[in-house]
Amino acid sequence: MEARRWLHGIRMEHGLLAVLYLAVWLISGHLTGEPVPKRCYIYALLLAPLLAALQTHTRYASRRMWAASWVLGLFFALCSTWGYSLHETCSLSLCWATLSLFVLWVVKTGVYAYVFHTVVLCAFSRLPRRNETYSKPVRWSISGWRLFLLFFCCRLPYLIAYYPCLFDYDGAVSLSSFGQGRELYDHHPFLVSCLQKSFFDIGQWLGDASLGMALLSLLFMAFASLVLVYMVRVCGRLGASVAVQKVLVAVYAVLPLFPLVSIYVTKDGFFTYFILLYVLSLLHLLIALHSDGHLPRRILLLHGVAALLLCLSRHQGIYFVVAQYAVCLLAFRRSWRAWTAAYLPVVGAYLLVVRGLYPAVGVAPSSKHEMLGTLFQQSALCFIEYPGEVTPEERVALEGVLDMETDTLTLQGYDYHVTDAVKGHYRYKPVVDWSVRNRFDPDEERQAVVRYLHSYATTAMRRPGTCALASLNLMNGFFYNTGGLFGIESWHDCPYLLPEYRFARRDVLYSPTNRLFDWLSRLPLLEFLFAKCYYTWLYIFCFAVLLYRRDTVCLTVFLPLFLSVALFLVSPTATYRYSLPLVACAAIIILYLKHPFYAGKQK
Fold this sequence. Notes:
Layout: H1 2-8, H2 12-32, H3 38-54, H4 63-89, H5 99-124, H6 144-161, H7 169-176, H8 190-206, H9 209-238, H10 242-254, H11 257-262, H12 267-292, H13 297-313, H14 317-331, H15 336-360, H16 369-385, H17 392-401, H18 420-423, E1 431-432, E2 436-437, H19 442-462, H20 464-479, H21 510-520, H22 532-549, H23 552-557, H24 559-567, H25 580-594
Helix pairs in contact: 2-3, 2-5, 4-5, 4-20, 4-22, 6-9, 6-10, 8-9, 9-10, 9-12, 12-13, 12-25, 13-14, 13-15, 14-15, 16-20, 17-19, 19-20, 22-25
């Protein structure tokens, strides 16, 4: 009966939309000269019955939802059209090359808007009433220790395959900074480097440096497994059924990405599971606040510890924590003492470590070139594209902060997709070549940066489109599918490494693993799990839904993740490492959207 009702629900418009979807892909392939992927035909066949199944629970459409759907449709049509042009030519020339491409962009906007409208209404139109409890705790009978052993054992084969750990270029650089004749430098989080160095020394004391790094991998695997057990329990408190909890366990235990990140003993690997613990503990606190009216002290302490780990594993962590503290004070003012007790010691401890401990042991602070890298990239592209418009003052100002000749920017290796080639020439880096302390007057740096910012303003006002193009090329991979999510890279060729920091590695497994991820990322439906751009789209979509719901709780809980998406706009490059926190927390935000425990103010 249900199947017959579902088949009768397939209307003519669903079939026409599927045909239009396929026509868009065929026309795009004809205009761009690229073959249409086979999975597109599968999606065209699934589109009509999928929309029919979803619309069986659809309510009426409001004007505001239609407006939101058109905005989302326009955004994703821009992503696909602009992204292809940027990927192929590093410019937007293909978007305006022919009238056909422009018309295709308009048609895509309409198709996406209709799909978003239908899906949004079906998935989120059943909004709960105000002042009602929407979820009931569901506990899975399996013990926490059994879950822990399951997660831990599923990670052991990856440790054996990649013994003693996973390590990338940045991790190798941070470890090598402890070499003989090197200067200590906080370019990468210094405490993470100290952790890597300590276990490396433990391995040397045991007779093989690889043993120390393998021990670090084991400890990180245990920590990640505990976090995942906690995740399953929190999802049960949120109202997820036992079947959903089992699916969560299967995904986080079997999907290759999460076990690989569990042995990824770098700042990015640590930050991924730290932010997962941070989000889970905050969600747990707000569930308790809504249910019992108070914040449990042990969970409050756990949240404070997670916040401190967040600050010490990546530099942007402190900004996330400060913003989170301000939002919690505004959204839940009655519990301001509890929030202050959780966050204020974290901020104080971070400042004590960075401002007090680091200078005391001779650690050079990180320089400003990471924050200014995007602006340098925009100025450089303006100088390359329009050299005749550059004024002497702008040239002097840029050369005042960059140790390079602006006339030879192209020859110096300007890269459209990463800022390193330009920002690496920053004059005032605290450490030069990792072995020489750069002695300079801070006032001189401040004056040079101020002069550059003034000249940048004039350049940006004259060529705003070129500046925007430079940033679009940097962040394109986060909004357009330009590659897989996680690729294993060899770091043995890193020029900064010293011989004493080489330890056993099995590089022979790199290529097969990358090919596996590439193959999985091309399969229908599974491609959404293995491409970083889809996670960016997911969080933008969820952000729009939460704004529509006016859901204060979820916007508060997932604030660090939404800020992570915002950081993509000024990212130095579109690398998979920056997307890992979004991947780790994706299931949590989807579950919340389906099992809300607090709706906020709604009509």
